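INFO  loader      accepted 1 record
INFO  loader      residues=272
INFO  predictor   begin
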Amino acid sequence: MLLMRLKSPLYRLISRPSLSLVLSSAVILACIASAQAERVPTQASPFPTIEQFIEIALGQEYATGVTRLRRWEQPLAIKIHRHFPVPTAVEPLIEELLGLLKEATQHSIGLASSDVNVDLYFVRQSKLAETWGEVARGQLPRDALCAAQIRTNRRSEIVAAVVLIPVDQAMRRGKLLSCIVEELTQVTGLANDSDSVYPSIFNDNSTDQMLTPLDWILLRTLYHSDLSAGMTEAEVREHAAGVMQRLKSSNEAQNAAQRIGATQLSELLNID
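INFO  predictor   done
INFO  writer      dumping tokens
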């Protein structure tokens, strides 16, 4: 993932590096469905630390230092642009994912056809760079498999985002689900990756391609009422530590595991 800051209003680029492993989409979908079925909803889940939250929520990959806290203060209204055919399971999967994100953040998130502020493009790999140039700012990294960009105002509130998924390339690499989940989750404001957060969609070495209980806690913390867009690292540390401790005491990670395990994603992944 690459984060890039341009002139105000601020734009940040989020991209997922391409991987060399190439598997058929049928095999990948079967593996994902199997992993979902094997996850035990009642199993104790790992709990993130305040340092991991700071790294994911305020960090910038390929840059030093941290930014101010970024998050949406207005509802997320997402429109799907189909510039390339996608499997029939994709839209129900997106709706299921957005339901999880809405519940985890307790913030309004959903598909929309008007007053849109998040544009999700499904494109052909050969059109990725061209489409990026039309809807985003800055250069698309050459190693990007899928990419997203968020725009913030001077208060560090996220006000718009674009997500681009090259369907043909993502399916060849067995990363269609991973791209959709990671990019839509990251545009909520958790824009950095980390090798220390595991299991998590924010860790490229993690085998999980769906939200984990750890991701759920990071999202719930980001959108807690004790935090707000524009907070400095010191302010985030002061407020987030107490939020995370209360979430831990209330067994929120275990509750999240049950909620994630109860989704219909495994069944949706088997739809042709």
